[in-house]
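Sequence only, no structure available. Ideas?
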Amino acid sequence: MITFCTLFSGSSGNASLLLTDEGAVLVDCGMSGKQIFQALESIHVSPSAIKALLVTHEHSDHVKGAGVLSRKLDIPIYATEGTWYGMESTLGSIPQNHRISITPGESFFLPGMEVAPFSIPHDANEPVGYRFYLPGHSVAVATDMGYFSDTVRNALLGAEVVLLESNHDPDMLRQNPHYPASLKTRILGRKGHLSNENGAAAAVQLVQNGTRHVLLGHLSPENNTPDMAYTTTHYALTRMGARVGRDVTLYVAGRLNPSYLYTIP
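Reply:
I predicted one. Tokens follow.
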């Protein structure tokens, strides 16, 4: 049995869980260890099931609790050299055998799965997304992207379940009085975040190539709403001929609570 969900998703913090019969891996740990343990308890998963922590990039909403979690559970952290450089001073002491460096484009193996990290266009040192290959299935995590690059598209094509960014509505962002112009430019830029429209266009390409479950994530609490993100992608998928609920499922990840649990026999 394969289970996938987000525990948290958004600018407040991110963590995704992939659970198999051989154990679980966590992608990012952007909340405190206590919050992660509470989220796991709410979906009846023991923290002892987690065998590895994979980090996408060094921003605090992805690594806030990584060091604590690694030490409490005695598990390794996997990240690119660039990400290690960016986050190492904030994690606290990590034993050398728990400091695993990975390379974008080069797969590595964990019990029961192949893990394929791929480069993403984001303003971090060496950020990646992840695709997990399991017997007969694959699951992918792809958020924090300024645009849907060819590298990302090629890495995701055919993935059965995809966590895909749908961060903001551009008009809401531009009109937000609390965001300085520099931050708006960053978010809208080529190394920022995917808008609802760009996320929807990416979802269309993925569904046309075999994706059957799309989970929209990393929504901005100030520049987006779950309804806007869902409606934008739903419209794009329907326009291309997909029947949402039959040909493809579509959900929005919760910002502060576990998302819909995808269970694959």
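The CA atoms of residues 167 and 219 lie 4 Å apart.
Hope that gets you unstuck.
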